[in-house]
Amino acid sequence: MIQRFEDFHPAFTFFYYMGVILLLMMFQHPTILVIALLIILMIHFVEDRFQNLKRWSLLIILSGVLIILLNPVFNQRGRIVLFIIGDHYITLEAVLNGSVTALSIMAIISIFVSYNEVMTPNKLLFLFSKLLPQFAVLLMLTLRFIPLMRRRLEEISAVQYSKGIAVTDGNWRKKVKNGLLYIQVLVTYSLEEAIQTADSMNAREYGKGERTTYDHFRFKKIDAVAFLWVGFLLIYCVIGRLYGFGVLTIYPMMDPIPLTGMEWCLAIGMFIFIAFPLVVKGGGRLKWRILISKM
Amino acid sequence: MAYINFKNVTFSYPENPAMPALQDLSLQVEKGQFVVLCGHSGCGKSTLLRLLKQEIKPHGAILGDIQLEGQSLLVENSSSKGIGYVFQDPENQVVADEVLHELAFGLENVGLSTNEMRNRIAEMVNFMGAENLLHRKTHTLSGGQKQQLNLASVLLMQPNVLLLDEPTAQLDPVSAREFLDMIVRLNGEFGLTVIMAEHRLEEVLAVADKIVMMEKGQIRLEGRPKEILPKVWDSSEKPYVPTIPSFYLKVFDQGQEGCGVGASSEVPLTVKEGRSWLRERRDGSPVYGYESTESTQLISEHKLDKPELPPSEPIIEVKNLFFQYDARKPSEAILKGLSLNLHKGEFYTLLGGNGSGKSTLMKLICGVSKPQRGKVIINKRDLKRWGRQELAKMIGYLPQNPKLYFIQDTVGKELQDTLEQWGLATESGEKRTSDLLNSLGIPHLTNKHPYDLSGGEIQKVALACLLVRQPQILLLDEPTKGLDPVSKGQLADILLELQSQGLTIMMTSHDVEFAAKYADRCGMMFEGRITSESSPASFFKGNFFYTTMIQRLFRGYTEDVVTMEEAIRIWGAR
């Protein structure tokens, strides 16, 4: 079977995403961030042709543009003045500072969208249940209760509607009153039913002793390899960063913007790290082709 | 030494120390037995079951002793690990959002290793044939599947005793039968001791080793099904006797025996036994055998009994209705061009499988959902032109779950609220309300919280709240679900009384016997349409599966017998 990025062990997937976010926050350099953002967009494109990202595009673009625009408004520090509006100085430093923040925020939101798709509640639950078994049960119940409550509320409003009571009725006071009555019914009903859930949990020995968890995911060799590879890249990047590379110093004196040779070495390490899902996908395609050509 | 032994157990809840829930009760259950508990709701069945399971034991004062394999269950720290418990409501027992997680839940609690869990789950999934359900979200399962899941997750704990508290009360008959078959299999193939509280004796009679009839915390009758049924028949619990034995016993009562068949202890329990009894009778008696003339006579008699309604005004007209929940998925349409006519004063029952759209149709008729295409005409006016308040006054809708009906915290407040909403809080309005409560037999419930009532009571209370606003049409979604036979009879009386006052009643049901007995017309829903529709007699006549027990009993002898009353009459007319 061809390995997909989603099939890696949740611990690895979690590690990858946290690593990406860490790197995006550490390397505050416009060139690096632009390329990183492009790679993340590519991940989305390859995954689902931007289907998921589309829903978030407004938020991503809006927050990016706002930060770029607002930073120079409140920040007049810097030596290189681009232009003056009234008595307000717009400096290159301020614009660059804003862009760096904007880029890293946009990149982080984009990678989070992918995280949401890949780290299903199940995987998260699995990870947490290793650390905090009791919390995991709570999380599991919550996951079940949210859609349950929503369905119940729908039922309640249908029945009350048939009685001639609706939240859309009358002035706002009446609306609020009816709405609160709905919620009251929902809460009493749910509490009442939850007693039975608790009984059913008790009847299955819940809270009697040490809890174990069912391992839904097995840690395979390929997970270990991936961990080693990505871990190596992360350490490489972090050490480089600690030596002071890969960040654009803006204040008090701005560094030259182009990356030095050493910084390029570091940046490429980071790009390979972020591009891991693309590597997996590309590798999978290649393997598939080879398999097919052999047949 | 009995396996499970109740020795003179008296148990009372703290709220009501004067009225013990169990009173000096003694019961022995042998290993591997299949025991069925029955009786009205509130007779102590659940209390008895719960006392066996340490973890969910009710609080209260207990006298006497309960022993499992000679070990008392009442001492501190006694373990009831070998006891599994399945509850009534399929939905509320589920803890996890995915089937696999749910199955693993109990195993995780006892601290098994992943490997062992995987083995046990694999085995169970195989046994239940549920491979394709493993990764489904639990809320997408049907009620029957949920209950099977609950059973599976209890069985995974490898119990020796299985306790079930009305496990099929919330299921439709097909799922209920599947569930019971599974229990029977577990009992038969694995020797699991089963104690089950259950109203539907029909399905379990043939396999139960012991029936225990309870009343007011005491055991009224107890014994093997064939021995106990005649005794139940002679007691006030008559409605509990299923159709076929009760037909036999009724005939027996009328003293029309004498053809070589029968002491009351040979009461037939299944259709098979019933038919062989009928055959024996016929062979033994040359007089026996139905002439076609008698059949026709029977039909006319039936018509006299339930006169065909004069062709009155149609009150509900449904024309070419289309409905789907998801606009993007026309292939999943629920209703596909459904048409229906209901006349004033009619009692109409809609039958059909789960998810065939019965409930959806009701919601469309009372305006809660809007159809994509087609028309609903109430009283010659298009539904779209009815104001919501007007419509609510015209139609009373009782949802499948009557608990959701109540918005106030006592029955009295809910009634008062309804009166005020409709401007009926006058003296005459209140007088009418109290008359209504009296006629339903529920005036003592006004200070109670609706959730504290039993299934039958909450149904009556919700009906009362509906009737206060004097609707002309009643839409009832599965009103017979989960009711014990006595409450069911009371519901039928109420509905017939309302019908005689001129109300039009439409209900959905899985209960074939109920429909056959009380409805004027039955309709069958299939593929988003009503495929057949007629009076119960001709509706059930041709059906093979979807028909009453009596019709199955008489199939091949005479075709027109659908209800018990008809069967008795033709027996007498012979």
Instruction: Count the beta strands of chain A.
Output: 2
What summary fits the major beta sheet of chain B? 6 strands, mixed
| Global Rg of chain A | 26 Å
Which two chains touch over the largest interface?
A-B, 52 and 60 residues
Can you offer a commentary on this structure?
The complex is a heterodimer of chains A (295) and B (574). Chain A has 295 residues and is mainly alpha-helical. Chain A folds into two domains: 5-120 and 223-294, no CATH class; 125-203, no CATH class. Chain A is built from ten helices and two strands, in the order αααββααααααα. A two-stranded antiparallel ribbon of chain A has the order 1-2. In chain A, α1 (10-26) packs parallel to α8 (221-242), α2 (30-48) packs parallel to α4 and α5 crosses α6. Chain A starts with 9 loop residues before the first helix and ends with a helix. The model of chain A has no long low-confidence stretch (mean pLDDT 87). Helices cover 38% and strands 20% of the residues of chain B. In chain B, the strands form four sheets. In chain B, strands 6-7-8-3-9-10 form a six-stranded mixed β-sheet, with helices on both faces. The relative contact order of chain B is 0.09. The longest helix of chain B is centred in the first third of the chain and has 18 residues, at 173-190. In chain B, β4 (61-68) and β5 form a beta hairpin. In chain B, α4 runs parallel beside α5 and α8 packs parallel to α20. Chain B has helices spanning 45-52, 99-109, 114-128, 143-155, 173-190, 201-204, 225-234, 243-253, 271-284, 292-305, 358-365, 388-394, 411-421, 427-440, 455-468, 485-500, 512-518, 536-541, 549-554, 564-573, and strands at 4-12, 22-29, 34-38, 61-68, 71-72, 83-86, 161-165, 193-197, 210-215, 218-223, 314-323, 335-343, 347-352, 373-378, 381-382, 395-398, 473-477, 504-508, 521-526, 529-534. Chains A and B meet through α5, α6 and α7 of A and α2, α3, α4 and α12 of B.
